[in-house]
Amino acid sequence: MDFFSLLFHRGRSLVMWLIKQLHLINAYISYSFSSLRKESYVRERWEGIMPLAGAKRLVVFVHYDRKGIVHDFARHYLHQLADSGFAIVFVSNAPTLGASEVAWLQRHCALILRRANIGYDFGAYKEGIAAIPDLAALDTLLLANDSVYGPLHHIAGVLERMEPETADVWGASDCWEFSFHLQSYFLVFHKPALQSPAFAEFWSKLRYVQSKTWIIMKYEVGLTRAMRQAGLRCRAAFPYRDAAAALIEAVVERDILSEGIDPVRKNFIQQVFRIINAGRPLNSTHFFWDYMIAQMDFPFLKRELLQKNPAHIPLLTYWERVVKQSTDYDTDLILRHLELSLKNRSV
């Protein structure tokens, strides 16, 4: 690497570090103001025709769309949850929900709440949980949101992996950034977790903080930490370590880099291999998305990956082929949403 290249990379690293520090400062400022916020941001409430009383399996499903649309991919998700025996508390952070959207939701959900988008998903989870009439009566509580496309496989198969005999708290995937934690887009709590004082304490202390950095660092990471400190068993159904180990094996034992793969994929694999080897954590739902879907039967595709691709993952144009070859999911559900939501980008 020549002098100017070295200078460029060091300069970029400094800029990224400064941006991260600004996000942290903003997070703490936002947290300090959160003490002044209201106890609830629920603006509208509708009862659904599905019974909430007596439910043994319940999901708090968080939705956001700036136009208040419940898109087809989200409706597919809700259908599968209902088919699997979940009573649905639908919590929308959207500015509005149209009459037709509410009418559809009432036919499929037990309760619909629309709230101001304060506190993001964790604020919505908190208010959804608070609306449950008898939390102690539940066998299973699922927290889920519409930040993913899917389930690509029927949700029943995913839930079968999440046995209460093996763990008290399950996530679809985990992450090791900051510290080990279960990612919050799909979390299952079995009865021992729901009956734990740590569960109630976590949600009672949660503030409505307007900082995604704070939400991740203190609430997403903090939830798993609080559950583990209470002696509860926390596991991921599709662990990061499994996907990372598969790539290491492919490079070291099968020597896939010498198999004549295209230069773009080869360069990407080399970079990821070096990062894993250095012990730096990666987001498996981004970096290993195709392996997880094709080889691990992972049931989700992150919306952020297709809409923004923040980590600059190459060859995302193959997403539709991977999904079609590995699942029977209707990829038109994703395409229709991308056509409405993408700006200055295509996949």
Helix proportion:
40-55%
Beta-strand residue percentage: 5-15%
> What's the count of strands?
12
For the record, give the distance between the C-alpha atoms at the N and C termini, rounded to a whole number: 33 Å
Question: What can be said about the biggest beta sheet?
Answer: 8 strands, mixed
The CATH superfamily of the largest domain is identified as Spore Coat Polysaccharide Biosynthesis Protein SpsA, Chain A
Low-confidence stretches: none
Order the strands across the largest sheet as they lie in space. 1-4-3-2-5-10-7-11
Organism: Azospirillum argentinense
Protein name: Rhamnan synthesis F family protein
What does this 3D model show about the protein?
- This is Rhamnan synthesis F family protein.
- It comes from Azospirillum argentinense.
- It holds the Pfam family RgpF.
- 48% of the residues lie in helices and 14% in strands.
- Helix 12 (289-295) runs parallel beside helix 14 (319-326).
- It folds into three domains: 1-36; 42-210 and 219-236, Spore Coat Polysaccharide Biosynthesis Protein SpsA, Chain A; 240-341, no CATH class.
- It is α/β, with parallel strands linked by helices.
- The radius of gyration is 21 Å and the shape is globular.
- It has helices at residues 3-34, 72-83, 99-108, 120-130, 155-161, 191-194, 197-205, 212-229, 240-252, 263-277, 284-287, 289-295, 303-307, 319-326, 332-341, and strands at residues 42-47, 57-63, 87-92, 111-115, 140-145, 148-149, 169-171, 174-175, 181-182, 186-190, 234-236, 301-302.
- The protein contains 15 helices and twelve strands.
- Strands 1-4-3-2-5-10-7-11 form an eight-stranded mixed beta sheet, with helices on both faces. It has a two-stranded antiparallel ribbon with strand order 6-12.
